[in-house]
Amino acid sequence: MAIYLTKESKVLVQGMTGGEGMKHTRRMLAAGTDVVGGVNPRKAGQSVDFDDRAVPVFGSVREGIEATGADVSVVFVPPAFAKAAVVEAADAGIGLAVVITEGIPVHDSVAFTTYAKSKGTRIVGPNCPGLITPGQANAGIIPADITKPGRIGLVSKSGTLTYQLMYELRDIGFSTCVGIGGDPVVGTTHIDCLAAFQDDPDTELIVLIGEIGGDAEERAAAYVRDHVTKPVIGYIAGFTAPEGKTMGHAGAIVSGSSGTARAKKEALEAAGVQVGDTPTETARLVLARLEASRSGT
Question: GO CC terms for this protein (predicted)?
């Protein structure tokens, strides 16, 4: 089992013929992802050779879905064209659109996430590394060779910290890892993933990675308290960030006492979530919690 992405997923890549699209399509294929096509109106009817596989290029997402039955799109297009790409995918009926593009204007993100939701399309991102179900499929830019299948579910604002926790816990393995992105507006939230992992019978423990800025982690803490029965281990990036400075992601800014790492940690701990002070300590907490639950203590 997994959430959002499985070996049955059929993936289209919008922007596959560009430099980043080509590079990461090759990596997705190497991870076992069923990439069934790319989308580029100017190269429709062509195909791209990736080692031992030729991937067709379609003129639109709708054409790709009709020809292949695709249900996932990964978006590798420049920021100026991202809104149109997502709207096209939603209009075509895609179930999941993974928006890797960074630097998208916030008003565009508000528009396309709202529109996609009205069409029944889930957005992961924007400005995210995507998601991976190890051993089954990889949609985005997450390295596929740093972990293995297992029973930990991971949801993270940070791409880099996603990779680090995957590596730190590589001997245990993951059901699905979701990088939701760190922009002020994202299509899939911590709460969405917490709910999905709670319902996934093969996810035993959930790791939640947040960072300074906004109140997403406080809202996630309230959701954990009221709805999640599985153990949750957390980490919050940004304890040393200076007040009033944007750090890394567009949404990672502290204003006064709002959005601080300490406030987020306190909210999570009040909901019963153990929170590590470093990624490595967080991994240790995960291992200790799994050992305790499996020994019945």
Answer: cytosol; succinate-CoA ligase complex (ADP-forming)
Sign of CA dihedral 247, 251, 252, 256: positive
Contact 57, 33 (CB under 8 A): no
CA dist., res. 51 & res. 182, Å (int) = 34
Longest dimension (CA), the chain: 61
Pairing between strand 274-276 and 174-179?
A: unpaired
What CATH number is given for 10-124 in this structure? 3.40.50.720
Known catalytic residues are 249
> Is the pTM of the predicted complex or chain greater than 0.90?
yes
| DSSP symbol at 236 | E
By the 8 A CB rule, do 3 and 178 touch?
yes
Q: Where are the domains of the chain?
A: 10-124, 146-295
Count how many residues are written for the chain. Answer: 297
Residue list, annotated binding site: 17-20, 43, 100-102, 163
CATH level 2 (architecture), domain 146-295:
3-Layer(aba) Sandwich (3.40)
Phi, psi of 50 (to 5 degrees): -120, 95
Binding residues for CoA: 17-20, 43, 100-102
C-alpha–C-alpha distance, residues 138 and 32, integer Å: 8
Each residue's pLDDT tens digit, 6-54: 999 999 999 999 999 999 999 999 999 999 999 999 999 999 999 889 9
Consecutive H or E run containing 274: strand 274-276
HEC string of 32-71 equals CCEEEEEECHHHCCCEEEECCEEEEEECCHHHHHHHHCCC
